[in-house]
Amino acid sequence: MKTAIIIFPGSNCDNETERFLYKCTGIAPIRVWHKETILPKVDLYVLPGGFSYGDYLRAGALANLSPIVKELKKTDRKILGICNGFQVLCEAGLLPGTLRINKTEKFICKPVGITTWPIHHKRRIPIAHAEGNYYHPNSSKLAEEQKIAYTYSSYRDDINGSVRGICGVRNNNVLGMMPHPERAFESYHCSQDGFKIMDDLNA
Amino acid sequence: MLTNDEIKLINERLGRAPNVTETHVFDAMWSEHCSYKSSKYWLKQLYTEGKHVISGPGENAGVVDIGDNDKLVFKIESHNHPSYIEPYQGAATGVGGIMRDIFTMGARPIANLNSLHFGSTNDRRVIDGVVKGIADYGNCVGVPTVSSKCHFFDCYTENPLVNAMTVGYTNKKIFTSVPGQTGVVVYVGAKTGRDGIGGAIMASEEFTEGEDKRPTVQVGDPFYEKLLLEASLELFETDAVIAAQDMGAAGILSSTSEVALKGNYGIEIDLSKVPLREEGMEPWEILLSESQERMLFVLDLDRFTQIGKENVFKIFKKWDLACIVIGNLTSTNNFKVTVENKTVCDIPLEALEAPELQRPTEPYKPEFIDIPIVTDFDMNWVWEQYDSQVIGNTIQGPQADPAIVRIPDSKKAIAMTTMSSAPFCHYNPRSGIRYIIYDCYNKLLSVNAKPLGITNCLNFGNPENPNVMHDFKEVCLGMAETCKELEFPVVSGNVSFYNETSGKGIIPTPVIGGVGLIENYENSDYNISR
To answer: Where are the beta strands (DSSP E) in B368-480?
Structure first.
């Protein structure tokens, strides 16, 4: 499987995402600068985590205006947005809903348990974000349409205030998630469940 | 402020009275913060040698060799005074400054650490601001904060200590602030404004209550720093760079004069070329501004013309950064500043070097202090605000000690930690620092790391007080003998004096940051529940 990583000014999870994709696919991903206007022909486009444009104004709001995002709106190939990438995809309207500032008003960095939807499997993946409080006015409709991809497993403590604990959303060819699969694949990471996320994507 | 003796000396050296701009120049350059005039003598005693030491104290940061052409660049620095006045921006710009020190040398920052001293757990204005400031800046630039320690004691209530450390890695050439030849002086980064003017001087004086010092604190922009980081590392690849210097304390003034002094060249800069954020700035304001996210490069003129000015500037254009030639290194040995064609400052560089002081020291009997046992502070609240996992190389984060970070694409890993034990140093500075260094050394050994070296941040009260100077002397001598004993050299550091408000100072608080090498992390004995 060929992949490409879209780099915005301020993206800072690009290098580990590159290593992760290489480990998963055996092919070095193509790095695409946000000012480019032609998408390379690959099977999966990844929008990495980080802080595009310093997350000024609102996370993902400025990156949404980049030329390459216009191209992403036209493609029917797979797109994965991780953390900031998820925020960009929501801003671009490629995914439903929006990501607000965490209920705690603080950045949160820790490994969490997440559950896949609609068939429940458990994954352990780190999160690291300040704006991951997912909101959608009609979450039952999301569930009906099978647009929920992941939720936080723990019902006991509400991590960031997301409705139904949603931390991943899909829409046709597009998947966005707050947890970082590229931080869960090396032997010293909290788990190697990042590979399973790639399987979920291809399932 | 300059003392009468200093003003006399300046007149003698120049053979005339300095003009307004020149007076400001001396005032800043001879401040404790820029000149290390009180500490220089004692710092010379430190043990700084080692086969693996490539660059010791005096540079932007220390550099050690870890084999296979891999190099580590690290330093710890204080940002105490600004963090009391404006905790959020003070701490944020402290992190920004230390990271710039690292990438100025051509290394990519791979880990941030910090050591914080607060008055009490109730001091929410300072604690919340400092922690959020550090988190927001480091997280946004994308450097993992892998270690953070908090200490609480009454004397830090009005003198909180914020010491930030960064470790960088490179397998390419190291760049220093010493130019080996003349070249063009290029200004890169954010525009210059009035923020932080007099910051270096502010950090060299005691505080008195009720004074508003907020305009002397800088404002940070981590996104701009990230762009500057990427652009600088790209520029280093072109071989056009002769020397690089971050614009820290006393901004353009100290960066330009330092480059010239170290290379033994003169320098001529034209302030009318400097991009300004505000109108009507005086020449001395432009020179002394501490606006953040600015860098100074000296570029090879031949190489510059050979690969083309456009090609060099293209790198900065890609990252949407300003980049302007503001002057040249010359063979005159003068520090010359012009505004358009009017000379506003012309000083022989050797006159600019501050006199070294040997302040009086006097032993004293330390009073009894009651160190509180803190049970109502959750360190996880601090640690979770830091992105400790970004770049994906963190093996052990802040929850463990020492922190361990893998060298990108290699089996090697770096163990690192910060240590302090102020109460011990209060009762006996010499054995206190000994305890701290041994503690640090052992921490590194505990994960099978080979200790490589330390960086120190010496936080003290007013050096004009002979008792404070006595503590300082003892700490330096104790550090010198312990480091020699362990062959654990000091490769970089920073001194912060004048941690006093309204006559109440801190107990001696030396903080050290130690770094060690793990040859193969897969064999190392790290273990933490994740």
So the answer is: 394-396, 403-406, 413-420, 450-459
Q: Is the pLDDT of residue B530 over 50?
A: no
Task: Let me know: does B322 contact B188? Beta carbons within 8 Å.
Answer: yes
**Whether A106 and B132 lie within 8 Å, measured CB to CB:** yes
Tell me: the pLDDT tens digits for B91-126? Answer: 999 999 999 999 999 999 999 999 999 999 999 999
The angle that helices B309-318 and B222-236 make with each other, rounded to 10 degrees, is: 150
Q: What angle do CA B420, B421, B425 make, to 5 degrees?
A: 120
Distance from CA of B402 to the nearest CA of A (A): 15
Give the phi and the psi of residue A86 in degrees, each rounded to 5. Answer: -60, -45
Determine the residue type at A90.
Answer: C
Residue B529: per-residue pLDDT: 40
Residue B44's contacts (CB-CB under 8 Å, 6 or more residues apart) are: none
So what's the pLDDT on residue B292? 87
What is the H or E stretch that residue A194 is in?
Answer: helix A194-202
And the tokens for A141? Answer: 């409709």
- Closest chain B CA to residue A188: B395
pLDDT average per 10 residues of sequence, chain A (203 residues): 94 94 96 93 95 84 89 94 95 94 93 93 95 94 94 84 94 95 93 94 80
C-alpha–C-alpha distance, residues B71 and B107, integer Å:
8
Helix crossing, B20-29 with B251-263: angle to 10°?
70
Question: Quick one: closest CA in B to A84, which residue?
Answer: B140
Beta pairing class for A148-152 and B509-518: unpaired
Report the residue from B221, B224, B392 with minimal CB separation from A182. B392
Give residue B208's pLDDT band: very low, low, confident or very high (50, 70, 90): low
Does the distance separating the beta carbons of B135 and A107 come in below 8 Å?
Answer: yes
Mutate to test the interface with A, among B387, B404, B412 (most CBs of A within 10 A): B387
Q: Residue B173 and residue B166: Cα distance in Å, rounded?
A: 19
A116-130, B268-282, B292-306, B472-486: the lowest-pLDDT one:
B292-306
Residues of A in contact with B406 (CB under 8 A): 188
Cα B509 to Cα B115, B126, B155, B165, B449: the distances in Å are 11, 19, 11, 16, 26
Q: Would you call A175 helix, strand, or coil by DSSP? A: strand
- How confident is residue B213, by pLDDT bands cut at 50, 70 and 90? low
Q: What was the ipTM of the complex prediction?
A: 0.93
Q: How far is CA B465 from CA B38, B42, B95, B503, B516, in A?
A: 11, 16, 30, 11, 36
Question: DSSP secondary-structure letter at A96?
Answer: S
- Residue written as tokens 């490994």? A111
Q: So which residues of A are the catalytic ones?
A: 83, 180, 182
Beta bridge partners of B515: B416, B453
Tokens of B502: 């309204």
Look up residue B318 and give its two tokens: 């890609």
* Gap between the Cα atoms of B113 and A142, Å rounded: 42
> Nearest CA to CA, how far is B36 from chain A (Å)?
35
What is the reported pLDDT for B527? 52
For the ranges B104-108, B116-120, B289-293, B312-316, which has the lowest average pLDDT? B312-316
- Sheet containing A166-171: which strands, arranged edge to edge? A30-33, A3-7, A44-47, A78-82, A174-177, A166-171, A148-152, A108-116, A122-129
Question: pLDDT (tens digit, 9 = 90+) per residue, B374-423?
Answer: 888 999 999 999 999 999 999 999 999 999 999 988 999 999 999 999 99
For residues A92 and A52, the answer to whether their CB atoms sit within 8 Å is no
- In whole angstroms, what is the distance from residue B512 CA to residue A76 CA? 54
A-facing residues of B in 297-326 (CB < 8 A) are 319-320
A51 and B221 in contact by Cβ < 8 A?
A: no
